[in-house]
Amino acid sequence: MFRIDDINKCMKKLNTPVKEGKKIPGEIEYIENRGKENRFVYRYKGKTVFSFGVTRGSNKKETLLYYVPKQMGLTTPEYRKLYECPMSKEDYNSLMSQRGNL
Fold this sequence. Notes:
5 strands; 33% helix; globular
């Protein structure tokens, strides 16, 4: 759940632009740097909701990235819901709005 492939799955889910013909605000930007880390940035209507870096060494499948849920504004159980699919992009946006992050 905290490996790079798993995080990519969650980021792909948050980058889904349309569901059942309805546009869902929010998009992921992946910034690939030649330096030490690549970044994921989630923007909602022009506002940055979260941004976190993944070092190049993190691409090893055994590297665990436990800090990601906190960077996304989620608890570990909430992140698990996003990863396992009960939480949708709309649910995530709603939760961030309730917490004043949007």
